[in-house]
Amino acid sequence: MHATNTADVATASTEEGSSPAGSSGAIDAAEFARQTSAILASITAVIDGKDDAVRSALVCLLAEGHLLVEDVPGVGKTMLARALAASIDATVRRIQFTPDLLPGDVTGVSVYNPVAQEFEFKPGAVFAHIVIADEINRSSPKTQSALLEAMEEHQVTVDGHSRPLPDPFLVVATQNPLEMEGTYALPEAQRDRFMMRISMGYPDAAAETLMLRQRDTANPLDAIRPVLAATDVRALITWARAVHVAPALEEYAVALSQATRSDPNLHLGASPRATLQLVRAAKVQAALDGRDYVIPDDLIALLPEVFAHRLIAARGLHRAGARPIEAALEGIVRRIPVPVGLPR
Asked: Where in the chain are the domains?
């Protein structure tokens, strides 16, 4: 896919905090529910028994974030991303991160054309609606950082020229647990670019048996038919972004974030970007639940997935079987008063 194909993609602007009733998008609440339900049903037909993971992927797409899936090999991490792409008729590229992968392989390079006597840009694998960064922690930090600008700005700059990426744009990165051989820890700046981190886990016996039957003679991805076009996703994003967040809930989100920065059990707390992404994800969560307003439970439910991968536990708290970061977040939720009597 060439970079020039992405320049004409229109982006819709939204006003933070406005009501969906006043949204300029071409859909209403019923159409949002119909389209998102169709996407979820399409993916869960392939990823059986992992409804939470499927929903998280859709939340990241509609909140314009990126998803980090950390788990052991073979549990369907890549399949999840491919099923999402197929369901929205999106272009998808897979980057296998290896120790010898170069930054230019990700973003693209300028190559001299002797016939035209000029340099031509050859787009890298990042030029797609959905980019699967497979086993991202098996490449060097330098190559990992090649995704930073793309994830934050939805563009890449090569040789001084900025080139826009397709809209929508979602990075689904997979990584193996750090104790596995040949892995590099993602730097803090890279982890902070991911809106959510999830773990899919092993399927239960029924789901694993169904997988055997479904994939014995065919690839289930081949049976997926798009339920909407990639260009239609922008209307869903616009609708979800306009979900109302009461000022008291904005203050609650900030209080949760600031509490991580002063918690004695945490060496590194949540960034301001984490606060923003928590609220954006909560808006999508509310919209998927059929509401045009966020409630405290939206923020609380998303807190581990949005915050945990950005935090670093204080020294001495890592023990076998211990979950110091999750325990710290649970303590923060208990300490910070939940707003009540919110206007809707």
From this structure: 27-235, 243-343
One digit per residue, the tens of pLDDT, for the chain of length 344 reads 333 333 333 333 333 333 343 334 478 999 999 999 999 999 998 888 889 999 999 999 999 999 999 888 878 888 899 999 999 999 999 999 998 999 999 999 999 889 888 889 999 999 999 999 998 888 888 888 888 888 988 999 888 889 999 999 999 999 877 655 667 778 888 899 999 999 988 888 888 888 888 777 778 888 889 999 999 999 999 999 999 999 999 999 999 999 999 999 999 999 999 999 999 999 999 999 999 999 999 999 999 999 999 999 887 666 544 688 999 999 999 999 999 877 66
The 3-state DSSP class for residue 82 equals helix
Q: Which helix (H) or strand (E) holds 279?
A: helix 272-288
Residue with tokens 């000022």: 247
Report the predicted TM-score, pTM, of the whole model to 2 decimal places: 0.86
292-to-28, 166, 225 alpha-carbon distances in Å: 11, 28, 29
By the 10 Å C-beta count (0-12 exposed, 13-18 middle, 19+ buried), 206 is classed as exposed
Same fold across 27-235 and 243-343 = no
CATH 1.10.8.80 matches 243-343:
yes
27-235, CATH topology level? Rossmann fold (3.40.50)
